[in-house]
Specification:
Layout (H helix, E strand, L loop, with lengths): L29 H13 L4 H11 L5 H5 L3 H7 L8 H19 L4 H23 L11 H9 L1
Helix pairs in contact: 5-6, 5-7
Family: Belongs to the universal ribosomal protein uS15 family.
Protein name: Small ribosomal subunit protein uS15
Organism: Methanoculleus receptaculi
Length: 152
Amino acid sequence: MARMYARRRGTSGSVRPYRKEAPEWSNTDAAEIEKIIIELRKDGLSASQIGLVLRDRHAVPDVRLATGKRITEILRENGLESEIPEDLRNLMEKALRLRKHLAENKKDHHNLRQLQIAESKVRRLVNYYVKSGRLPADWTYKPETAEILLTR
């Protein structure tokens, strides 16, 4: 299938091996893994960063196989889930960086297009999260207030 904003097809990438249970060499103590996830979140790491730390330092290749829950589910149960979903936050940060760059470099038309693409992705994700109930119904993306939202 073709890319959304480019006239080319994507290259195939690696695929995680299909497993129904955690490998025998991995750490499978669910209570300990949940405790580590909560500690890492309190240290300020996002869900994807927590997954990387668990993989690299604690020998947990897949949290869902080890605990039966995803990282975000564990955070939600303990009241540590962020207000803005991580993928939306990352796109908003990208759009904010592009706006700052364009304020200094007014003739950079290539990055002006990238800003348009990033903000359209943000709007599309906001629609999805509002429909799924993850964000309030009156939530809208405004570039002027995005920096205030991201500093919380």
